[in-house]
Specification:
heterotrimer; A alpha/beta; B mainly alpha; C alpha/beta; A: alpha/beta; Peroxisomal Thiolase, Chain A, domain 1; 2 domains; eleven-stranded mixed sheet; three-stranded mixed sheet; 19% strand; globular; C: alpha/beta; twelve-stranded mixed sheet; two-stranded antiparallel ribbon; PP-bd_ACP (chain B); ACP-like_sf (chain B); Acyl carrier protein (chain B)
């Protein structure tokens, strides 16, 4: 059984603004939300910059318990999910909860809270036999990865399959993909799908410092995230969440819902190469793209936009450029491909979902968001990366692709009105 | 003044510790011009070795050090840095 | 127009690293004989914690099973996973490195506790010594995706790769993911879960679960379905399976040990055990539906056995609700009382026990449980010989997931 899957609601918490409107304003203006880290004192780190969310949980109608006790990434997800469900017009109370699923991704989950409490129970890293008496009694909620999906499921009375996906930096794409499968294969009619991460903490920054993956451009944070630009020097950490309401197409039609677009296909493959390294050929990502096109029975020439992983590491940008050329052939040169990480940073597991929402908005506004900070072409990256300025364009079929530590290579295809050949 | 020099023997020990690579020090000396790949050492492993040395000697190695392709190249960069105390 | 036969997911390989047995035969011997291995926790830095009893995987020799270059960059949970995956591949006749299309084999694991011991070591370096002392492997060892990634790299598998980061029921969800990937066209999936939650800080993090047992006597700490139920005992270890398209397995000439016939999952909220009754019953019905099985077809139930009175009652009632009068007659067992609940790996180890039970025609017993206070035919004391064709595996998670899996013996098909 394969059923059509519509996107009927979106919500986002991103650096530079909460809500889809503020998010799109930032993207379409090509503004960057990267800055010096304020969430903790980053002295001693190599990379001291990030794209942070100016986020106060009390501003968003969350109940006091969530505001005071929940991890930041859970709060992001709750706010993004609220917006998505509102946008979809679904009345969660009236719908059959047993037919509502949740599929949310996170790469590092409760790490930030875990580190915070670790410092206390270990007396600043001085003891291995940590003192449990100093721990927060709710620490298990940070330790348990499915807290994310559980909190969101509770919020909307979802009682169908509820799961958390954690495939590193493709978590967001894969969570949307799993949600797509859940509906397409009949396990639910509605799925709240997306991802969240709040990784701006000493341990996460330090572990990327250790492999020199993040940008050390501390003197010019606004211009530090430079995907595809010859002068790039690593990614800029981000944080945030995005959630989509996915719905079986006829279910959405029957209730007269707005249909933003459809999920045309999803695929993921492993590169079986290296936990952090990427090949220069991009074979596995190309395979993921090809598979989504097959599922939608779409010719590669009908792709109108590629939302790139575009992290701004040299190996990623070359890998991805090669993958897109492999899949789209000569059409790759006529297809705009941009990275919103230039503006909102790289929020690890969350970014895949944030990028899918960016694609939904691109389809809605028929506008391609730019790659900010792109100035100096890299001879090995010779596609159209939409430098600095958003571009109006007829968009019907758009791809979002991603790569993650562990070798994950994923692609999601979105089709707007007129996108799919019946 | 630092007079220490990192030898091929020490590099072999570091490769084991930081990257789990077993290499005979004699072989490492003999094939010092062979790429690190030849010994099974990847970029993360080399970064781990750079980190160990930086912490041991309390100094920063130049960014070139982690891009070295061979043991010879790497030891030259490390030892010239140690000599100048940079 | 040709009608394509539905691709079915068959289990052709099993690899186990469990507290009561490393390798499948050792595991089955302990399980079938009802040997309990729960004991006081011996891992360094844990002795002072109020959680005293667990199922530890002792004398696990990672270095004998996994290459050093993988060991230095991974946590214990990935060591278990890599070791179990290699055993499963050997069992399925895929360990010899015969050339296959790398895209035809994928990997999916479930994980609920991540690389806690590795993470704690690196946190200690960061906060005790400074950021420069954090090593290059922290970024790939602590996160939940580590085991899937390393298994894929170690064996060169490029098929669909995934990670369910979940509470216990996620172990069954991972099997459903694998079955789905096979149905959608992937030949083979390496699937399962392994956990290593017995490091000091990880244990501190688990103390907040109201369901965890803090009883100090290993024989009394985990006794589900009894009036003395006082919570569950955690464990480490896990199991990986080779799951492949049934036709493909027959072409390769390897025995089909069992098929993954049906799965369903629901959610009823953390620690709301009374509500898990309906959730679990619905999951069971969903799994039976997908398997095309009737309640009477179920020959044995591997219970979740949370060990919390309300949870046990809800499970007993769910079995009755979903299986009707058959629910009172069908043998029910919970071998995990002998070695603990290894989070996401718990239901995968149960699935392995179910396959082995069907192969041996024996329902294994529930160690340490002697008198129960629910209307169930719980198998106690010693294994019961019965011909078994179809097994039902149940799992519930501490955050509120409920899942059910129907497994059929190799060679059996839906009515």
């Amino acid at each position: 059984m394969t059923r059509r899957v519509a996107v009927t609601g979106i919500g986002v918490v991103a650096p530079g603004g909460t809500g889809a409107t503020a998010f799109w304003d930032l993207l379409s203006a090509g503004r960057t939300a990267t800055r010096g880290i304020t969430l903790f004192d980053p002295s001693g780190l190599r990379s001291r910059i990030a794209a942070e969310c100016d986020f106060d949980p009390f501003d968003h109608g969350l109940d006091p318990d969530l505001c005071q006790h929940a991890d930041r990434y859970i709060q992001f997800a709750a706010v993004a999910a609220d917006e998505a469900v509102r946008d979809s017009g679904l009345d969660p109370g009236s719908d059959d909860g047993w037919r509502t699923a949740v599929s949310l991704g996170s790469a590092v989950g409760g790490t930030t809270r875990l580190e915070h409490d670790y410092v206390r129970v270990s007396e600043h890293g001085s003891r291995w036999d940590v003192d449990h008496r100093a721990a927060d009694p709710k620490l298990h909620l940070a330790f348990q990865p499915s807290t994310l999906a559980a909190v969101v499921a509770e919020r909307f009375g979802a009682r169908g399959p509820v799961q958390t996906v954690s495939t590193g930096c493709t978590s967001g794409l894969d969570a949307v993909g799993y949600g797509f499968h859940t509906i397409a294969e009949g396990r639910a009619d509605v799925c709240i799908a997306g991802a969240s991460d709040s990784p701006i903490s000493p341990i996460t920054m330090a572990c990327f410092d250790a492999i020199k993956a993040t940008s050390p451009n501390n003197d010019d944070p606004q211009h530090a995230s430079r995907p595809f630009d010859a002068r790039r020097d690593g990614f800029v950490m981000g944080e945030g969440a995005a959630v989509l309401v996915l719905e079986e197409y006829e279910h959405a039609r029957a209730r007269g819902a707005q249909i933003h677009c459809e999920i045309g296909g999803y695929a993921t493959f492993g590169n079986a190469y290296h936990m952090t390294g990427l090949t220069t050929e991009g074979l596995e990502m190309a395979r993921a793209i090809d598979s989504t096109l097959d599922q939608a029975r779409l010719d590669p020439t009908r792709i109108d936009y590629v939302n790139a992983h575009g992290s701004g590491t040299r190996q990623n940008d070359r890998h991805e450029t090669a993958a897109v050329k492999r899949s789209l052939g000569a059409h790759a040169y006529d297809t705009p491909m941009s990275s919103i990480k230039s503006m909102v940073g790289h929020s690890l597991g969350a970014i895949g979902a944030i990028e899918v929402v960016a694609c939904v908005l691109a389809l809605k506004h028929q506008t391609v968001p730019p790659t900010a900070n792109y100035e100096t072409p890299d001879p090995e990256c010779d596609l159209d990366y939409v430098p600095r300025t958003a571009r109006s364009r007829k968009l019907r079929n758009v791809l979002s692709v991603g790569s993650g530590f562990g070798g994950f290579q994923s692609a999601v295809l979105l089709t707007g009105p007129g996108g799919r050949t019946p | 003044m630092i007079t220490t020099e990192v030898t091929a023997d020490e590099l072999a020990v570091l490769m084991k510790k930081a990257a789990g690579i077993t290499v005979d020090p004699q072989e490492l000396k003999r094939d010092a011009e062979s790429p690190f790949d030849f010994f099974g050492l990847d970029s993360l492993g080399l970064l781990g070795i750079v980190g160990e040395l930086e912490n041991r000697y309390g100094l920063s190695l130049p960014p070139d050090s982690e891009r070295c392709r061979t043991p010879r190249e790497f030891l030259d960069v490390v030892n010239s840095t140690l000599k100048t105390g940079a | 127009m040709s009608t394509q036969r539905l691709r079915r997911a068959a289990i052709t390989g099993i690899g186990v690293i469990a507290p009561n047995g490393q390798r499948t035969d050792a595991y089955w011997k302990s399980v079938s004989e009802g040997i309990g291995v729960l004991d006081r926790i011996t891992r360094e830095g844990c002795g002072h914690l109020p959680l005293r009893v667990a199922g530890e995987v002792r004398s696990f020799d990672a270095a004998a099973l996994i290459e050093d270059r993988f060991l230095v960059q991974t946590d214990r949970f990935s060591h278990f996973a890599m070791a179990a995956a290699a055993l499963a591949l050997d069992d399925a006749g895929l360990g010899s490195g015969e050339p296959v299309d790398p895209f035809s084999i994928g990997v999916v694991t479930a994980a609920g506790s991540g690389g806690g011991e590795f993470g704690q070591r690196e946190l200690q370096k960061l906060w005790g010594q400074g950021p420069r002392f954090v090593g290059p492997y922290q970024s790939i060892a602590w996160f939940y995706a580590a085991s899937t990634g390393q298994i894929s790299i170690r064996s060169g598998f490029k098929g669909p790769c995934g990670v369910v980061a979940s509470d216990e029921a996620g172990g069954l969800d991972s099997l459903a993911h694998a079955a789905g990937a096979v149905r959608r066209g992937t030949d083979t999936m390496i699937v399962g879960a392994a956990e290593a939650p017995l490091a000091p800080y990880s244990m501190v993090c688990q103390l907040g679960y109201p369901e965890i047992s803090t009883v100090e006597d290993p024989d009394l700490a985990y006794r589900p379905f009894t009036s003395k139920a006082c919570g569950f005992v955690p464990a480490e270890g896990g199991a990986l399976l080779v799951v492949e398209d049934e036709d493909r397995a027959r072409e390769r000439g390897v025995p089909v040990r069992a098929t993954l016939a049906g799965h369903a999952a629901t959610f009823t909220g953390a620690s709301r055990w009374e509500e898990s009754r309906e959730g679990l019953a619905r999951a069971i019905r969903g799994a039976l539906d997908e398997a095309g099985a009737a309640p009477e077809d179920i020959d044995v139930v591997f219970a979740d056995a949370m060990g919390v009175p309300e949870a046990d009652r809800a499970e007993a009632l769910a079995i009755a609700d979903a299986l009707g009068s058959h629910g009172r007659r069908v043998p029910v067992t919970a071998p995990k009382t002998g070695f603990g609940r290894a989070h996401c790996a718990a239901p995968v180890l149960d699935t392995v026990a179910a396959v082995l039970a069907m192969e041996h025609g024996q329902v294994p017993p529930t160690p340490n449980v002697f008198d129960i206070c629910h209307d169930l035919d719980l198998v106690m004391s010693r294994a019961r010989p019965v011909e078994l064709r179809t097994a039902l595996v149940l799992s519930r998670g501490l955050m509120g997931s409920n899942a059910a899996l129907v497994v059929r013996r190799g060679g059996e098909s839906a009515r």
